[in-house]
Specification:
The chain is mostly helical and 279 residues long. It folds into two domains: 10-148, Cytochrome c-like domain (Cytochrome Bc1 Complex, Chain D, domain 2, Orthogonal Bundle); 174-273, Cytochrome c-like domain (Cytochrome Bc1 Complex, Chain D, domain 2, Orthogonal Bundle). It contains eleven helices and four strands. The strands form two sheets. It has a two-stranded antiparallel ribbon. Strands 3-4 form a two-stranded antiparallel ribbon. The longest helix is centred in the middle third of the chain and has 16 residues, at 174-189. It is globular, with a radius of gyration of 18 Å. The protein starts with 6 loop residues before the first helix and ends in a 6-residue tail after the last helix. The chain binds heme C (2 copies). One heme C binds at residues 2, 5, 7, 11, 76, 79-81, 83, 180, 184-185, 187-189, 206-209, 214-215, 230-231, 235-237, 243, 251. One heme C (HEC) binds next to α8 and α9.
């Protein structure tokens, strides 16, 4: 049960997320050990110019709030959704994504590059602004992604990519979802989904799941199915794959109904500056 978990043990980077980053971290339990790709250790980042870029990328990934501040509009980090520094299978791990791009995305009705996918996560998931390709932030995130994917063949779908599949067995019911939220999620994500800030007031210990500091209405997480899939594989934190598919869908619908920042695509300004960034 989520109630018995010590979140600081499960997520090492929670301890002092603002400044020191862990060099080792506790792995949450994964079904079928040995089945998934194991990315290289942080200690093995090369000590050269490329390694410096990888380190910066990791910092941005884990603490986007601080290291890519100018592009973020809400309270989240990349690791809020791509858990364990982008390593965790079924939390859209970075090593399973990198070699798959450029790829055709139905949602965009076009071929999307890896960098464009990152830009989308900035605009929608982080309710912010897309870094352009020549920025240190973008170069660092791509360098980190390439480093993390060492040994993964190009264009091969790996187990653990994206999120697990969920199947509904009956109609979704936000009333059941509310009960699940209150019993399995609220101790961390709090009443009104607003999350819980770190003691020093900087950033979140537990990120908000709705409200003004959450992802916006254009984000992939704002699709009930995607949200349910993320929840199924990863929540409650440290106890992924414990909710039934139906429970994940019900709680996803409950969260989907709540208020959050609007889809920037629907405003004139964004259409003007990012004519191709439509969802
Ligand atoms: C609010 C949650 C959230 C945050 C925060 C977030 N992402 Fe994502 N990201 C997603 C979701 C959901 C998808 C899956 C999109 C889809 O399949 O439609 C995704 C997809 C991706 C992918 C492609 C994964 C694949 O398998 O194709 C990459 C790469 C990525 N994000 C990078 C980032 C980076 C870098 C950041 C931080 C700058 C970030 N994301 C922040 C939710 C998030
Ligand atoms: C033990 C604390 C804990 C519990 C319980 C928990 N979460 Fe989370 N949740 C987290 C943390 C921490 C993160 C961010 C992951 C990270 O930073 O490593 C997160 C991330 C998320 C995210 C993506 C980021 C965001 O803010 O939108 C969603 C959605 C989410 N949780 C939903 C849920 C749901 C639904 C439940 C109940 C079924 C739940 N969580 C239970 C701690 C928890």
């Amino acid at each position: 049960m989520g109630q018995n978990l010590n979140p600081q043990k499960i997520r090492a980077s929670l301890v002092t997320p603002a400044l020191s980053l862990p060099t080792t971290f506790v792995q949450t339990q994964i079904t079928n050990p040995g089945k998934y790709f194991i990315p290289p250790l942080v200690a093995n980042i090369p000590n050269d110019k490329f390694g410096d870029m990888v380190r910066l990328g990791r910092h941005i990934f884990v603490n986007t709030q601080k290291y890519a501040k100018r592009y973020v509009g809400n309270g989240l980090n990349c690791t809020s959704c791509h858990l364990q520094e982008g390593r965790k299978p079924y939390a859209a791990p970075i090593w399973a994504a990198y070699g798959m791009y450029p790829m055709y995305r139905q949602k965009k009705r076009s071929v999307v590059t890896y960098q464009e996918q990152i830009q989308d996560c900035f605009i929608y998931s982080l309710d912010g602004i897309a870094p352009t390709l020549d920025t240190p932030e973008m170069k660092a995130l791509v360098s980190y992604s390439k480093w993390l994917s060492r040994g993964v063949p190009i264009n091969v779908e790996f187990p653990g990519r994206g999120f697990p599949h969920v199947q509904r067995s009956q109609d979704l019911d936000p009333k059941r979802g509310k009960i699940i939220y209150e019993t399995r999620c609220m101790m961390c994500h709090r009443k009104n989904g607003q999350g819980q800030k770190n003691k020093n007031g900087e950033g979140y210990m537990f990120p908000p799941v709705w409200g003004s500091d959450s992802y916006n209405k254009g984000a992939s997480m704002q699709r009930i199915k995607t949200l349910a899939e993320f929840i199924k594989g990863n929540m409650p934190l440290g106890a992924g794959f414990t909710l039934s598919d139906q429970a994940a869908l019900d709680v996803a619908m409950y969260i989907w109904l709540q208020d959050r920042p609007k889809n920037p695509k629907k405003s004139f300004i964004m259409d003007f500056f990012y004519p191709n960034m439509s969802h």
